[in-house]
């Protein structure tokens, strides 16, 4: 959970980034939470979460359905060669394929008619993940190791000190990959600005209306608001971390 300090901080310093916005979608939502937890309201202007999930310990503590943790392996399981075939078949072909392709496959009519560009993007992502080999199998497994990133020990959404007017939560009511109750819990916990999407599955709810999502995240306040709030000019175009 210290990656914001070890990996992100050098980038922020090198690029001379002041206060910033951060958002994450799907498996990246907990990483966005880690950034907000590390830097707090002094640096984080707003936090955006799309199709977010709760790590297993928190979801069970709140008596919510398990999130995606059970679909991913631990780092120790990955290093044991006996799981290699299972990894390739189950994670790369099933889990990753479903993550990227469930919306085009299950909700293709609504996606094609309403969001044709987003559907083309999702199909391209599915093709890259399944066929083109842009992600090495082992590298992808380590990136999504349950004990390292999916449940992210040390990352606790309850430790994020942002008010609801600075948090945006969008989630899919028909999401088959991440329980919708996780998004509902986060929205209620923060008192966040929330939008519930239906008819587009997990992948569709992750990508549609992105411009609108970012507009809600950044907000209509003029730049002078952020200058007054943080004691200096803020370039909003350069202040978003994804």
Automatic annotation (TrEMBL):
Coiled coil: none annotated. InterPro entries: AB_hydrolase_1, AB_hydrolase_fold. Residues 9-203 form the AB hydrolase-1 domain. It comes from Prymnesium polylepis. Transmembrane segments: none annotated. This is AB hydrolase-1 domain-containing protein. Gene3D superfamilies: alpha/beta hydrolase. It holds the Pfam family Abhydrolase_1.
